Amino acid sequence: MSTMLGTTLSGRYRLEARIGAGGMSTVYRATDLTLQRPVAIKLMNREVSIDSDQLERFRREARAVAQLSHPHIVGVIDAGEDEGRPYIVFEYIEGETLKERIRRQGRLPVAEAVAYAIEIARALGAAHARHIVHRDVKPQNVLIDEEGSAKVTDFGIARTLDEEGLTADGRVLGTTDYVSPEQALGQPVTGQSDLYSLGVVLYEMLTGEVPFKGESQVAVAMKHVREEIPDVQAKRPEISSALAVIVDTATAKHQENRYADDAELIADLEDGLAIETTRAGSATGEVTSVLRTLPAGKQRRIPFRLRHPAISILAVLIIVALLGGGAVWLGTRAHHGTGSPSTPPPPRAPSPVHLCQSCAYGFNPLGNPTDEHPDASLAIDNQPGTYWNTQTYYDDTLNKAGVGLYVDANPGTTARILRVTTATPGFMATVYARDTKPPLRWPDPGWVQISASTKITANRDIRLTSGSTPYRYFLLWITSLGGHSSLAIDELTLYK
Questions:
Q1: Is 327 a domain residue?
Q2: Is residue 51 part of a domain?
Q3: Which residues, in sequence order, are bridge partners of residue 429?
Q4: Are 438 and 409 in contact (CB under 8 A)?
């Protein structure tokens, strides 16, 4: 194929470098001599072009992708034939494939992986809306441009749901590392099959490896049919339960248990991105770009500084400048006499109770897992933007009497206030206390109620009625979700 380099197709496209190859076609970087811009050319291999079925499949790809216009799909510019060999002209993306990024970097940052999954899902949604199924979703077919944005490419085996496909004889097409069970079995393929493959891609982005390995492609395909995807949290414990559920649902073996369509998956991924970004406490690169595209309700769950880092930095600079100016002004207005200040000092503020770094525990005696979520220490780390999350509860309903989070104030304290800071306000909670280590059951007579049932706002001080009685363990017992599917507790702070 190297002999093609330097040749010009249809008097317009000069082939300059080979950048990819497959059984049906070869991809070149080329120059559009008319518009003087780089393009990518997919040129059908000569030995394949004599096969009428393959020729029709290639032409059909051109027709399919020409219908699609979306910021996360590599766009078609032109199509034609040169000496009987058809070609497709695409926009040229400078960058790397998602597969190359995973190989180079290993598992991706959690929020970044979710952001890419959202972009890919949106691209697939645009294709599915035109009744086009990709059928070969894999990280090799996702390009990451110089600005970090994902673009889906290579609809080479795509077909519309409105026509009889050339693969109706049951042959399995697609890479078996990502193939859906129904595609592996040669059964009808729908948009849900693409969503399964995307779930596998998300698994790989989070863990750095594909879920199944085998001695042959057929062996791998059969594992997709017969075996459950390995537990993603076992591979990467720090991800949220909500994100683990997304991976499990996207890769369900039976289509009735899988996401019904792109909109369902995208909605959950957007929730997952909000949760993971808030837990990470920072957002950079493509995560920031995707955060700006989230619906307003989901954006409000994320601290402003993470959604708008540039504005937040500017605000800090302005505050520093104002404080500096204020200090100068106060210096010129300082009181030089010996009398008392004209205003009384403020009342003594409550002092925080110092807790050890690992002295917080999820408490789920009525469910599984019993700690609800393993990252309870994030709720007492004094780091705004890092969260302990509950599990995801569908229909926004807590399906049990309660779930909670408790702290160990060893050896004990006479706390007056429990301050709750949350990104998911509106839920109901009550505070309980005890001296002995909490048993894994509810109710238990060792717990003493020390607050009224309280509706939790973004920053809520719950007055405690324990008075002068010291307690060691303090439990925030959540009894309703307040319209949320998952709650995020940023900080629990005891004051005495």
A1: no
A2: yes
A3: 454, 478
A4: no
Q: Is 261 a catalytic residue?
A: no
**What does the DSSP 8-state code read for residue 211?**
S
Query: Do 140 and 288 have their domain in common?
Result: yes
pLDDT tens, position by position, 434-463: 999 999 999 999 999 999 899 999 889 899
Q: Do 104 and 229 share a domain, yes or no?
A: yes
Maximum Cα–Cα distance across the chain: 103
> For 349, phi and psi rounded to 5 degrees?
-80, 150
Residue pLDDT, tens place only, 238-255: 998 889 999 999 999 999
Rounded to an integer, what distance in angstroms lies between the CA atom of residue 247 and that of residue 245? 5
324 CB neighbour count, 10 Å cutoff: 10
Clarify whether residues 70 and 103 are in a common domain.
Answer: no
**Distance of alpha carbon 445 from its chain centroid, rounded?**
41
Number of domains in the chain: 3
Range of the domain at 9: 2-91
- Do the beta carbons of residue 394 and residue 264 sit within 8 Å? no
Q: CA 257 → CA 5, 53, 245, 251, distances in Å? A: 49, 35, 12, 9
Q: Are residues 41 and 163 in the same domain?
A: no
The CATH code of the domain that includes 76 is 3.30.200.20
Supply the pTM of this predicted model: 0.61
pLDDT for residue 396: 77
In a domain, 35, yes or no: yes
Catalytic residue among 32, 136, 154, 262: 136
Q: Which of 91, 124, 154 is the last residue of a domain?
A: 91
Residue 170, pLDDT above cutoff 50: no
Contact 424, 475 (CB under 8 A): no
Q: How far apart are CA 465 and CA 467, in angstroms?
A: 5
